[in-house]
Write a structure and sequence with these properties.
five-stranded parallel sheet; 34% helix; Rossmann fold; 423 residues; alpha/beta; 2 domains; eight-stranded mixed sheet; 23% strand
Length: 423
Protein backbone atom coordinates (compact mmCIF):
# COMPACT_ATOMS: atom_id res chain seq x y z
CA UNK A 1 0.00 0.00 0.00
CA UNK A 2 1.37 3.38 -0.97
CA UNK A 3 2.25 5.52 2.06
CA UNK A 4 2.73 9.24 1.36
CA UNK A 5 5.56 11.30 2.83
CA UNK A 6 2.96 13.31 4.78
CA UNK A 7 1.23 10.32 6.41
CA UNK A 8 2.96 10.97 9.76
CA UNK A 9 3.90 14.60 9.09
CA UNK A 10 4.85 16.57 12.22
CA UNK A 11 4.71 13.44 14.40
CA UNK A 12 7.62 12.83 16.78
CA UNK A 13 8.60 9.20 17.33
CA UNK A 14 11.10 7.99 19.90
CA UNK A 15 12.46 4.55 18.97
CA UNK A 16 14.16 2.45 21.65
CA UNK A 17 16.24 -0.55 20.56
CA UNK A 18 17.70 -3.31 22.72
CA UNK A 19 20.22 -6.11 22.17
CA UNK A 20 18.52 -8.55 19.81
CA UNK A 21 19.34 -9.86 16.35
CA UNK A 22 15.93 -8.48 15.34
CA UNK A 23 17.44 -5.00 15.50
CA UNK A 24 17.98 -5.19 11.73
CA UNK A 25 14.19 -4.78 11.41
CA UNK A 26 14.38 -1.66 13.57
CA UNK A 27 16.59 -0.02 10.97
CA UNK A 28 13.87 -0.57 8.37
CA UNK A 29 11.23 0.58 10.88
CA UNK A 30 13.07 3.85 11.47
CA UNK A 31 13.37 4.31 7.72
CA UNK A 32 9.62 3.70 7.27
CA UNK A 33 8.77 6.30 9.92
CA UNK A 34 11.06 8.87 8.27
CA UNK A 35 9.67 8.15 4.79
CA UNK A 36 6.15 8.71 6.17
CA UNK A 37 7.15 12.21 7.29
CA UNK A 38 7.82 11.65 10.99
CA UNK A 39 10.78 13.00 12.94
CA UNK A 40 12.56 10.07 14.59
CA UNK A 41 15.05 9.93 17.45
CA UNK A 42 16.65 6.72 18.71
CA UNK A 43 17.74 5.42 22.12
CA UNK A 44 20.11 2.44 22.17
CA UNK A 45 21.15 0.20 25.04
CA UNK A 46 24.79 -0.84 25.31
CA UNK A 47 23.91 -4.37 24.19
CA UNK A 48 22.08 -3.01 21.14
CA UNK A 49 25.32 -1.34 20.04
CA UNK A 50 26.93 -4.78 19.80
CA UNK A 51 24.68 -5.53 16.82
CA UNK A 52 24.49 -2.15 15.05
CA UNK A 53 26.45 1.06 15.54
CA UNK A 54 24.63 4.31 16.36
CA UNK A 55 25.89 5.73 13.06
CA UNK A 56 23.40 3.55 11.17
CA UNK A 57 20.41 5.10 12.93
CA UNK A 58 21.93 8.59 12.83
CA UNK A 59 22.30 8.31 9.05
CA UNK A 60 18.67 7.27 8.60
CA UNK A 61 17.08 9.71 11.07
CA UNK A 62 19.49 12.66 10.77
CA UNK A 63 19.43 12.81 14.58
CA UNK A 64 22.06 11.89 17.14
CA UNK A 65 21.45 8.60 19.00
CA UNK A 66 21.06 8.76 22.79
CA UNK A 67 22.82 6.06 24.80
CA UNK A 68 24.35 5.57 28.24
CA UNK A 69 27.54 7.39 27.27
CA UNK A 70 26.28 10.74 26.02
CA UNK A 71 23.33 11.92 28.14
CA UNK A 72 23.33 15.72 28.51
CA UNK A 73 21.41 18.07 30.78
CA UNK A 74 22.46 21.16 28.85
CA UNK A 75 19.71 20.47 26.31
CA UNK A 76 16.92 17.90 25.79
CA UNK A 77 19.37 15.02 25.24
CA UNK A 78 18.43 13.18 28.43
CA UNK A 79 15.92 10.57 29.61
CA UNK A 80 13.39 13.16 30.84
CA UNK A 81 13.38 15.81 28.12
CA UNK A 82 13.57 13.43 25.17
CA UNK A 83 10.41 11.74 26.44
CA UNK A 84 8.67 15.11 26.72
CA UNK A 85 9.61 15.72 23.08
CA UNK A 86 8.06 12.48 21.78
CA UNK A 87 4.45 11.84 20.75
CA UNK A 88 4.93 8.09 21.09
CA UNK A 89 7.67 5.79 22.41
CA UNK A 90 8.29 2.59 20.45
CA UNK A 91 10.54 -0.13 21.88
CA UNK A 92 11.46 -2.60 19.14
CA UNK A 93 13.02 -5.04 19.65
CA UNK A 94 12.26 -5.53 23.32
CA UNK A 95 14.21 -8.44 24.78
CA UNK A 96 12.91 -10.65 27.61
CA UNK A 97 15.44 -8.94 29.88
CA UNK A 98 14.15 -5.45 29.03
CA UNK A 99 10.51 -6.57 29.38
CA UNK A 100 11.32 -7.89 32.87
CA UNK A 101 12.86 -4.55 33.81
CA UNK A 102 9.92 -2.57 32.45
CA UNK A 103 7.43 -4.79 34.31
CA UNK A 104 9.24 -4.20 37.59
CA UNK A 105 10.09 -0.50 37.13
CA UNK A 106 13.83 -1.19 37.03
CA UNK A 107 15.62 1.77 35.46
CA UNK A 108 19.27 0.77 35.20
CA UNK A 109 19.99 2.08 31.68
CA UNK A 110 19.03 5.07 29.58
CA UNK A 111 16.22 3.24 27.77
CA UNK A 112 14.47 1.88 30.86
CA UNK A 113 14.92 5.24 32.62
CA UNK A 114 13.19 6.97 29.70
CA UNK A 115 10.40 4.39 29.63
CA UNK A 116 9.75 4.74 33.37
CA UNK A 117 9.55 8.52 33.04
CA UNK A 118 7.43 8.49 29.86
CA UNK A 119 3.74 8.96 30.81
CA UNK A 120 2.06 8.44 27.44
CA UNK A 121 1.35 5.30 25.42
CA UNK A 122 4.29 3.08 24.57
CA UNK A 123 4.43 0.50 21.77
CA UNK A 124 6.35 -2.69 22.63
CA UNK A 125 7.53 -5.32 20.13
CA UNK A 126 8.99 -8.36 21.98
CA UNK A 127 11.77 -10.48 20.52
CA UNK A 128 13.18 -13.57 22.21
CA UNK A 129 13.81 -17.30 21.94
CA UNK A 130 10.61 -19.36 22.16
CA UNK A 131 11.38 -20.78 25.61
CA UNK A 132 12.25 -17.32 26.87
CA UNK A 133 9.11 -15.63 25.51
CA UNK A 134 6.84 -18.45 26.69
CA UNK A 135 8.43 -18.74 30.12
CA UNK A 136 5.62 -18.13 32.65
CA UNK A 137 7.57 -15.29 34.22
CA UNK A 138 7.98 -13.52 30.87
CA UNK A 139 4.29 -14.04 30.16
CA UNK A 140 3.46 -12.53 33.55
CA UNK A 141 5.75 -9.59 32.77
CA UNK A 142 3.98 -9.02 29.45
CA UNK A 143 0.61 -8.96 31.24
CA UNK A 144 2.02 -6.45 33.70
CA UNK A 145 3.26 -4.04 31.02
CA UNK A 146 0.00 -4.44 29.07
CA UNK A 147 -1.88 -2.84 31.95
CA UNK A 148 0.80 -0.17 32.39
CA UNK A 149 0.21 1.88 29.24
CA UNK A 150 2.06 -0.41 26.82
CA UNK A 151 0.55 -1.57 23.52
CA UNK A 152 2.10 -4.95 22.71
CA UNK A 153 2.67 -5.91 19.08
CA UNK A 154 2.69 -9.67 19.45
CA UNK A 155 5.71 -11.70 18.27
CA UNK A 156 5.30 -14.23 15.48
CA UNK A 157 6.11 -17.86 14.84
CA UNK A 158 8.99 -18.40 12.40
CA UNK A 159 12.57 -19.65 12.24
CA UNK A 160 14.59 -17.88 14.92
CA UNK A 161 18.28 -16.94 15.04
CA UNK A 162 18.90 -20.07 17.15
CA UNK A 163 17.81 -22.15 14.12
CA UNK A 164 14.63 -23.41 15.79
CA UNK A 165 11.12 -22.58 14.66
CA UNK A 166 8.70 -21.18 17.20
CA UNK A 167 7.07 -18.14 18.75
CA UNK A 168 9.29 -15.19 19.62
CA UNK A 169 10.32 -13.52 16.36
CA UNK A 170 9.68 -9.80 16.40
CA UNK A 171 6.57 -8.70 14.49
CA UNK A 172 7.01 -7.53 10.92
CA UNK A 173 7.98 -3.91 10.33
CA UNK A 174 4.61 -3.19 8.69
CA UNK A 175 2.69 -4.34 11.78
CA UNK A 176 4.79 -2.25 14.18
CA UNK A 177 4.52 0.72 11.81
CA UNK A 178 0.72 0.61 11.73
CA UNK A 179 0.41 -0.08 15.47
CA UNK A 180 2.42 3.09 16.00
CA UNK A 181 0.36 5.01 13.45
CA UNK A 182 -2.81 3.91 15.29
CA UNK A 183 -1.47 5.45 18.52
CA UNK A 184 -0.57 8.67 16.72
CA UNK A 185 -3.66 9.08 14.54
CA UNK A 186 -6.46 7.71 16.75
CA UNK A 187 -9.60 9.84 16.46
CA UNK A 188 -12.21 9.84 19.22
CA UNK A 189 -15.02 9.80 16.65
CA UNK A 190 -13.90 6.48 15.16
CA UNK A 191 -12.14 5.00 18.18
CA UNK A 192 -13.76 1.63 19.08
CA UNK A 193 -16.54 2.27 16.56
CA UNK A 194 -17.66 -0.87 14.72
CA UNK A 195 -17.16 -0.40 10.99
CA UNK A 196 -17.75 -2.79 8.10
CA UNK A 197 -16.03 -2.43 4.73
CA UNK A 198 -16.65 -4.52 1.62
CA UNK A 199 -14.31 -4.65 -1.35
CA UNK A 200 -13.22 -6.33 -4.57
CA UNK A 201 -15.26 -7.69 -7.45
CA UNK A 202 -17.48 -10.66 -6.67
CA UNK A 203 -16.63 -13.95 -8.39
CA UNK A 204 -19.71 -15.69 -9.80
CA UNK A 205 -19.23 -19.33 -10.70
CA UNK A 206 -20.05 -20.64 -14.20
CA UNK A 207 -18.50 -24.05 -13.55
CA UNK A 208 -15.62 -25.26 -11.41
CA UNK A 209 -12.97 -23.56 -13.58
CA UNK A 210 -14.77 -20.50 -15.01
CA UNK A 211 -16.43 -17.46 -13.48
CA UNK A 212 -17.82 -13.98 -14.12
CA UNK A 213 -16.12 -11.08 -12.34
CA UNK A 214 -14.85 -7.55 -12.98
CA UNK A 215 -11.64 -5.53 -12.78
CA UNK A 216 -12.16 -4.18 -9.25
CA UNK A 217 -8.89 -4.64 -7.34
CA UNK A 218 -10.16 -4.09 -3.80
CA UNK A 219 -7.42 -1.49 -3.21
CA UNK A 220 -9.84 1.28 -2.23
CA UNK A 221 -11.55 -0.97 0.31
CA UNK A 222 -8.18 -1.98 1.77
CA UNK A 223 -7.22 1.71 2.01
CA UNK A 224 -10.51 2.56 3.77
CA UNK A 225 -10.00 -0.33 6.22
CA UNK A 226 -6.39 0.70 6.90
CA UNK A 227 -7.35 4.33 7.52
CA UNK A 228 -10.12 3.21 9.87
CA UNK A 229 -7.68 1.00 11.76
CA UNK A 230 -5.28 3.94 12.16
CA UNK A 231 -8.16 6.08 13.47
CA UNK A 232 -8.90 3.44 16.13
CA UNK A 233 -11.99 1.75 14.68
CA UNK A 234 -12.95 -1.90 15.12
CA UNK A 235 -12.75 -2.87 11.45
CA UNK A 236 -14.27 -5.85 9.66
CA UNK A 237 -13.13 -6.07 6.01
CA UNK A 238 -15.20 -8.43 3.85
CA UNK A 239 -13.66 -8.73 0.40
CA UNK A 240 -12.67 -10.89 -2.53
CA UNK A 241 -9.26 -9.24 -2.87
CA UNK A 242 -6.94 -7.65 -0.31
CA UNK A 243 -3.75 -5.62 -0.27
CA UNK A 244 -0.85 -7.78 0.92
CA UNK A 245 0.39 -5.30 3.55
CA UNK A 246 -2.77 -4.67 5.55
CA UNK A 247 -2.34 -4.10 9.29
CA UNK A 248 -2.36 -7.53 10.90
CA UNK A 249 -5.05 -6.63 13.44
CA UNK A 250 -7.72 -5.82 10.84
CA UNK A 251 -10.36 -8.57 10.89
CA UNK A 252 -10.63 -9.86 7.32
CA UNK A 253 -13.16 -12.24 5.77
CA UNK A 254 -12.24 -13.65 2.37
CA UNK A 255 -15.34 -14.27 0.26
CA UNK A 256 -16.02 -15.27 -3.33
CA UNK A 257 -19.52 -14.65 -4.64
CA UNK A 258 -22.37 -12.25 -3.90
CA UNK A 259 -24.30 -14.64 -1.69
CA UNK A 260 -21.29 -15.31 0.52
CA UNK A 261 -20.56 -11.59 0.84
CA UNK A 262 -24.20 -10.88 1.67
CA UNK A 263 -24.36 -13.54 4.39
CA UNK A 264 -21.15 -12.42 6.10
CA UNK A 265 -22.20 -8.79 5.89
CA UNK A 266 -25.60 -9.56 7.41
CA UNK A 267 -23.87 -11.45 10.25
CA UNK A 268 -21.49 -8.55 10.81
CA UNK A 269 -24.35 -6.08 10.96
CA UNK A 270 -26.21 -8.21 13.50
CA UNK A 271 -23.07 -8.51 15.63
CA UNK A 272 -22.47 -4.75 15.42
CA UNK A 273 -25.99 -3.98 16.56
CA UNK A 274 -26.04 -6.59 19.33
CA UNK A 275 -22.52 -5.75 20.44
CA UNK A 276 -23.52 -2.22 21.33
CA UNK A 277 -26.05 -3.52 23.83
CA UNK A 278 -24.49 -6.70 25.21
CA UNK A 279 -21.06 -5.21 25.87
CA UNK A 280 -22.39 -2.04 27.46
CA UNK A 281 -23.56 -3.80 30.61
CA UNK A 282 -20.03 -5.01 31.37
CA UNK A 283 -18.08 -1.83 30.76
CA UNK A 284 -17.23 1.53 32.28
CA UNK A 285 -19.14 4.67 31.32
CA UNK A 286 -16.32 5.74 28.97
CA UNK A 287 -16.30 2.33 27.27
CA UNK A 288 -20.09 2.37 27.02
CA UNK A 289 -19.77 5.69 25.19
CA UNK A 290 -17.54 4.02 22.57
CA UNK A 291 -19.64 0.87 22.23
CA UNK A 292 -22.81 2.95 21.85
CA UNK A 293 -21.41 4.63 18.75
CA UNK A 294 -23.48 4.00 15.63
CA UNK A 295 -21.85 1.44 13.29
CA UNK A 296 -20.70 2.46 9.81
CA UNK A 297 -20.72 0.55 6.52
CA UNK A 298 -18.52 1.44 3.54
CA UNK A 299 -19.79 -0.60 0.60
CA UNK A 300 -16.84 -0.44 -1.81
CA UNK A 301 -17.33 -3.91 -3.34
CA UNK A 302 -18.13 -4.21 -7.04
CA UNK A 303 -21.01 -6.70 -6.96
CA UNK A 304 -21.87 -8.39 -10.27
CA UNK A 305 -25.13 -7.16 -11.78
CA UNK A 306 -25.82 -10.56 -13.34
CA UNK A 307 -24.84 -14.11 -12.42
CA UNK A 308 -25.07 -17.44 -14.28
CA UNK A 309 -28.59 -18.83 -14.03
CA UNK A 310 -27.35 -22.39 -13.68
CA UNK A 311 -23.87 -22.76 -12.21
CA UNK A 312 -22.42 -26.16 -13.08
CA UNK A 313 -20.35 -28.61 -11.09
CA UNK A 314 -17.22 -29.91 -12.76
CA UNK A 315 -15.87 -28.47 -16.01
CA UNK A 316 -18.08 -27.84 -19.01
CA UNK A 317 -16.54 -29.45 -22.10
CA UNK A 318 -16.30 -27.38 -25.26
CA UNK A 319 -17.11 -30.49 -27.27
CA UNK A 320 -20.57 -30.61 -25.67
CA UNK A 321 -21.10 -26.83 -25.84
CA UNK A 322 -20.67 -26.61 -29.61
CA UNK A 323 -19.52 -23.73 -31.81
CA UNK A 324 -21.78 -21.17 -30.08
CA UNK A 325 -22.33 -21.11 -26.36
CA UNK A 326 -25.21 -19.10 -24.98
CA UNK A 327 -24.61 -18.46 -21.30
CA UNK A 328 -27.88 -17.68 -19.52
CA UNK A 329 -27.64 -15.00 -16.84
CA UNK A 330 -30.08 -13.77 -14.22
CA UNK A 331 -30.22 -10.50 -12.36
CA UNK A 332 -28.14 -10.64 -9.19
CA UNK A 333 -29.04 -9.66 -5.65
CA UNK A 334 -28.43 -5.98 -4.89
CA UNK A 335 -26.63 -6.25 -1.55
CA UNK A 336 -26.68 -2.55 -0.74
CA UNK A 337 -30.38 -2.22 -1.46
CA UNK A 338 -31.44 -5.40 0.34
CA UNK A 339 -29.51 -5.36 3.62
CA UNK A 340 -31.06 -3.94 6.77
CA UNK A 341 -29.39 -0.54 7.13
CA UNK A 342 -31.48 0.68 10.05
CA UNK A 343 -29.24 2.17 12.73
CA UNK A 344 -26.16 2.10 10.46
CA UNK A 345 -24.50 4.97 8.61
CA UNK A 346 -23.99 3.71 5.06
CA UNK A 347 -21.65 5.01 2.37
CA UNK A 348 -21.84 3.48 -1.11
CA UNK A 349 -19.28 3.56 -3.92
CA UNK A 350 -20.18 3.95 -7.57
CA UNK A 351 -17.86 3.62 -10.58
CA UNK A 352 -19.06 5.25 -13.81
CA UNK A 353 -17.60 5.73 -17.28
CA UNK A 354 -20.41 8.02 -18.43
CA UNK A 355 -19.22 11.50 -17.48
CA UNK A 356 -22.46 13.14 -18.58
CA UNK A 357 -24.83 10.92 -16.60
CA UNK A 358 -22.52 9.62 -13.86
CA UNK A 359 -23.41 12.33 -11.36
CA UNK A 360 -27.13 11.88 -11.94
CA UNK A 361 -26.82 8.10 -11.55
CA UNK A 362 -24.96 8.53 -8.26
CA UNK A 363 -27.61 10.95 -6.96
CA UNK A 364 -30.30 8.44 -7.89
CA UNK A 365 -28.35 5.76 -6.01
CA UNK A 366 -28.68 7.80 -2.80
CA UNK A 367 -32.46 7.67 -3.07
CA UNK A 368 -33.04 4.19 -4.51
CA UNK A 369 -30.73 2.42 -2.07
CA UNK A 370 -31.56 4.62 0.92
CA UNK A 371 -27.97 5.39 1.86
CA UNK A 372 -26.30 8.38 3.49
CA UNK A 373 -23.56 9.15 0.96
CA UNK A 374 -22.02 8.00 -2.31
CA UNK A 375 -18.41 8.14 -3.45
CA UNK A 376 -18.59 8.60 -7.23
CA UNK A 377 -15.54 7.58 -9.26
CA UNK A 378 -15.53 8.52 -12.95
CA UNK A 379 -13.35 5.98 -14.75
CA UNK A 380 -11.42 6.65 -17.93
CA UNK A 381 -11.34 3.00 -19.02
CA UNK A 382 -10.47 -0.44 -17.64
CA UNK A 383 -6.89 0.73 -16.97
CA UNK A 384 -8.31 2.89 -14.17
CA UNK A 385 -8.78 -0.23 -12.04
CA UNK A 386 -5.96 -1.33 -9.75
CA UNK A 387 -4.14 2.02 -9.69
CA UNK A 388 -2.61 3.41 -6.50
CA UNK A 389 -4.41 6.75 -6.89
CA UNK A 390 -8.05 7.77 -7.18
CA UNK A 391 -10.40 10.75 -7.13
CA UNK A 392 -14.05 10.87 -6.05
CA UNK A 393 -17.06 13.10 -5.76
CA UNK A 394 -18.45 12.70 -2.24
CA UNK A 395 -22.21 13.11 -2.52
CA UNK A 396 -24.86 13.40 0.17
CA UNK A 397 -28.52 14.37 -0.33
CA UNK A 398 -27.54 17.98 0.40
CA UNK A 399 -23.91 18.39 -0.67
CA UNK A 400 -21.20 17.56 -3.18
CA UNK A 401 -17.47 17.63 -2.37
CA UNK A 402 -14.69 17.05 -4.90
CA UNK A 403 -11.73 15.03 -3.64
CA UNK A 404 -8.96 15.37 -6.26
CA UNK A 405 -6.60 12.62 -7.38
CA UNK A 406 -4.32 11.39 -4.61
CA UNK A 407 -3.02 8.09 -3.28
CA UNK A 408 -5.85 5.88 -2.07
CA UNK A 409 -4.83 5.90 1.59
CA UNK A 410 -4.81 9.71 1.69
CA UNK A 411 -8.15 9.71 -0.12
CA UNK A 412 -9.54 7.23 2.42
CA UNK A 413 -8.75 9.60 5.29
CA UNK A 414 -10.52 12.44 3.44
CA UNK A 415 -13.59 10.26 2.86
CA UNK A 416 -13.67 9.25 6.53
CA UNK A 417 -13.39 12.89 7.63
CA UNK A 418 -16.37 13.84 5.44
CA UNK A 419 -18.29 10.80 6.68
CA UNK A 420 -18.19 12.09 10.24
CA UNK A 421 -20.98 14.50 9.33
CA UNK A 422 -23.34 11.67 8.37
CA UNK A 423 -24.08 10.33 11.86
Amino acid sequence: MQISNTFLKDKKILLGVTGSIAIYKSVELARSFVKAGAEVRVIMTQSAKKFITPLTFETITSNKVLDDTNESWADDFNHIQIGMWADVFVIAPATANTIAKLANAIADNILTQTALAYPKKKVLAPSANTNMIENPITQANLKMVAIANYEIVQPQVKELACKTTGNGAMAEVNDIFFATARELLSDDFYKDRMVMVTGGGTIEKIDDVRYISNFSSGKMASAIATALYCLGADVNLIATRFESDLPNDIHTIDVQDTQEMYEYLEDSIRIAKKGKLSKATLMSSEQIHHIAKKPYLFMAAAVSDYVPQFAQNGKLKKESLGEVWELKLKKNRDILASINKEGIVTVGFKAEMDQQNGLKNAQNMLIKKNIDAVCLNILKDSSSFGTDTNSVEFLTPNSQTTLPTQDKLQLAFKILELSKGLE
